[in-house]
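G., the chain you wanted modeled:
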Amino acid sequence: MEERNARVFLDVSDGSVAMTEHAVVIAGGGPAGMMLAAELALAKVDVAVVERRPNHVLAGSRAGGFHSRTIEVLDQRGVADRFLAEGQVAQAAMFGTTVLDMSDFPTRHPYSLGIWQNQIERIMAAWIAELPVRISYGCEVTGFAQDDTGVDVRLSDGESLRARYLVGCDGGRSLIRKAAGIEFPGWDPTKSNLIAEVEMTEEPPRGIRHDATGIHGLHRMEDGRTVRVVVTEQQLGPSSEPTLRNLSEALITVYGTDFGIHNPTWISRFTDMTRQAAAYRVGRVLLAGDAAHVHYPAGGQGLSLGVQDALNLGWKLAQVVNGTSPESLLDTYQDERHPVAARALKHTMAQTALQRRDERIKALVDVVSELASMDEPRKRLAGIISGLDVHYDLGEGHPLLGRRMPDLDLITADGPLRLFELLHDARPLLLNLGQPGDFDITPWADRVQLIDASCKGEWELPVLGVVSAPTAVLIRPDGYVAWVGDANHLGLPDALATWFGPPTAA
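Predicted structure as tokens:
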């Protein structure tokens, strides 16, 4: 990763000033921004990230956790082990207060991963350091102007960049979204929580407490000294930065003491405001992650949603930049990701309501908990929260169409391998499980892998169960199935052209 600030340069031939140019500029270097940068770099796209922080070292643990599909996504790129080595696997998918056991789900990762955001960002930053990604720390986008061929991006240091596309991964208060004039409809906040890491002179009670206001929790960190605090405020807090006194008052209200809090590493406030961008793209400006959707963290889906936005957008944007596909391919980004986030927002609002524990709400919690413990509701809810049941609407056909491809154990001419190993370089794949040589995709051979293989055993999908094994499957770089068929090739040329550009002339 090349760490630098983009510089304007002087064209001495005529005295004019030219801007540093990149194919894509990403505003914001959080998990969504870094994942998108990695996807573009794997596709050999010239990408630059602008990050306002001085580096990727976070004070304190911040948020954290990945659900099953996001771990699969990282596995598809060959880096999941880096995160698994530092996190803690657990059955942690929850709805309300019910833990949804996923241990019987058909995936190599039937669990959630407990890992703090400071660890996630450090590992991701090390990954993109291995890729041709340019990143400018200590700098942020202050404005932009787009035209028919690109975007002029203004930076806080007074300099500018020129990009063919600009992607806002700059969080819930996204300047990119606001400057693009994209509406952000939804629901205003009704409650707020303080979250902090502090030291305490008294030993706090561990675990989670529910009351009529909401949820509260105290957890001693691994260092044995710092305590992570989450407490629901009695009234909706102001938009200003919270103080140690605010935290003390909130703790005293709930616990009768503030446990002698002192020496805070960080203190922050979050609310249940729930909003989603009306458009994920305006011309050459796009949004991903929290810039496109914000919600209460019930269920812990925020980081995973952002990473999966980046996965969906990355290969599409790369193909448009590289001239493989027409710009209209970018329209499928909103078509596919907007409904996924809308559903997640609905479920987080439901879970937020279940955190309050007056007697009326407790009756609802009891009913939901009973239902969630039943097999079919458990699988359905766990499929939604884990991201394993995401289904993009690609039309009628085999149940696999539009769903994530299972990580099959394959036998190929080069020996046994896992299907996800074939996705490490983010290239599309036509998997032929019939007779070798049944398929000729020469007009797309420069961009689509053709693998002849065999596979034993049943094909089982999360939530849906066992499905019939197809003869051939066309798999997108994001691991979702674009076509299912047999040796008659019906519909295959159309699917190849739709997703991976027109055929190359003979």
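The first helix runs from residue 31 to 42.

Shout if anything looks off.
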